[in-house]
Write a structure and sequence with these properties.
The chain is an alpha/beta fold. Helix content is 26%, strand content 32%. The chain has helices at residues 27-31, 47-66, 79-88, 103-108, 151-154; strands at residues 13-18, 21-26, 35-41, 69-75, 94-98, 111-113, 121-123, 126-131, 134-140, 164-167. The protein has a 6-stranded mixed beta sheet. It has a two-stranded antiparallel sheet with strand order 1-2. It is globular. The protein starts with 12 loop residues before the first strand and ends with a strand.
């Protein structure tokens, strides 16, 4: 079952490579008491993810910060790849989270079968907005699309009058 607006973010452990080394990050600590936009990509360094998705959030970080919103990026990759991707795109300020075993992504109900592309189980492309761990907005892309989960879409005309849910469509 896919997470929906009004649901609490499930508890899970993710990995992050920080300056101090490899760290466990609980989703509870990522979301508790905060406003967070989390966007998820099928894979770091993949074409759309690297050319559009991550750069959009990098370019719009100041707008999210002005709204008191933290930004996190999730992928079913390892934390070393996520850190290299962050460094390659100068994505300072974005919390890069690795869900290497797809545990959290599966708990959200947002996994996809990428075996046809040699990727195994990955995350669908999506973005969600949560306040204090409760989903207020959710945007899940159609397979192969990049329309509703961009930084621009998350900052779009509906902000901050969420909740809204958009699955496999445009706003």
């Amino acid at each position: 079952m896919t997470i929906k607006v009004g649901d609490k973010i499930p508890s899970a452990m993710l990995k992050q490579l920080a300056a101090s080394g490899l760290q466990d990050q609980s989703t509870d600590s990522v979301f508790a008491g905060k406003k967070v936009v989390m966007f998820s990509v099928p894979g770091a360094f993949t074409p759309t993810c690297s050319a559009k998705h991550l750069p959009g959030y990098v370019n719009k970080m100041n707008e999210f910060k002005a709204k008191g919103v933290e930004v996190a990026c999730l992928a079913v990759n390892d934390p070393f790849v996520m850190k290299a991707w962050q460094d390659a795109h100068k994505a300072e300020g974005i919390t890069m989270l690795a869900d290497g075993n797809c545990t959290f992504t599966k708990a959200l109900g947002l996994e996809m079968d990428g075996a046809g592309y040699g990727l195994g189980t990955r995350s669908q492309r999506f973005a969600l907005y949560a306040e204090n761990g409760v989903v207020k907005a959710l945007a899940v892309e159609k397979p192969g699309a990049f329309e509703v989960s961009s930084a621009e879409a998350m900052l779009g005309s509906g902000w901050p009058s969420w909740p809204r849910t958009q699955i496999n469509s445009t706003w």
